[in-house]
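Sanity check

After download, print the first record. It should look like this:
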Amino acid sequence: MAKLSTTELIDAFKELTLLELSEFVKEFETTFDVTAAAPAAVIAAGPAGAAPAAAEEQDEFDVVLESAGDKKIQVIKVVREVVSGLGLKEAKDLVEAAPKALLEKVDKEAAEAAKEKLEAAGAKIVIK
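Expected structure tokens:
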């Protein structure tokens, strides 16, 4: 197999649908045992010295599913409500991949509302 340049890879990705690209990312994560969301968490953390100042001014929050608990089916249904545009399979895959960020960079009210709904369904949620 010929080695593709970065430009050729980007051009190939442009031809994929969002669903095909999502499946590619999942397969890539599985094959190489990595997570695409990990670098975003590191960037959001910022430098160690700036953490206290950032906590005071934080206006964007991430809702992270730690575990589905005993009522996995109920949690999957609520995940479909909270995360727009998810099909049943995508929601199930997301719940099974816990811990996983469900919502990123949302305001405090939306994060709290999602947390309440998901915890009522039996999920363990953390807001970062």
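If your output differs, re-run the checksum step. Summary of this record's structure: The radius of gyration is 17 Å.
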